[in-house]
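Quick one from the shared queue. A colleague (R.T.) flagged Haloacid dehalogenase as missing a structural entry in our internal table.

Convert sequence to structure tokens.
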Amino acid sequence: MSDLQPEKTLLPLQTSALLFDLDDTLHHRSKAFYGWARDFAQRYHDSSQQAEMRVMVDYLVDLDNHGYRPREQYFTYVKHNYPTVEGSIEQLIADYQRDVIDHIILENEILLLLQQLRTRRVPFGIVTNGVGQQQKRKIKTLGIDAYTDCIFISKEFGKQKPDPAIFLAAAQCLQKPTQEILFVGDNPEFDIWGAHQVGMKTVWIHHEPRQWPEQISPEVADLTVHTFADLLPLLGLQPVAAKEDSAGDLK
């Protein structure tokens, strides 16, 4: 019985379950988006136009606003600034949603976390803003659906973070009171303030150069880390090499 410690001893702040944001939390969306932007820009530049291509990549990344700019608006601006970009707005969005998946990878430290949470029988789930089909494809590509079925996607649920309803529904799914849930996310308003307002404890993943907004008290973030790897010792998990299990999960 010593291998299965009481759940509450595994997590900080007297919590016994976890909820995660998806983008730039359980996977590095910024890396995946940069990879897509580079491939997209290469379509419109030859090998002698490296400087121009880098300018376009920088524009595509800045315009994205960490994923918070609506895709219709995003590609409207892209076509306006780069008239050589071909295709309708609808086709560009569909191509983006298909192609960006190729750049999504599961980092070793996140694989390790998921495996150890399952081994220790710590319940966890995902609360993410976004379009259902796109977010489902990301989750399936990462293999996270093999570890939890407590997954809430705003477009399908009907409310998006920071609305309390989506956090409360996730807590009900985990069958835990909100004060026993630790929410991990990178967005100060949608993730950290949203979870805090329903009584959850919070961990802010601070990705540079994003800064904490002045209108939100920094006290709503109970803990702060700068990389996902920093989260492992915080949760009492050992940084040992991740192993593929017999079912072949998360190859």
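The mean pLDDT is 90.
The radius of gyration is 19 Å.
Added to the table.
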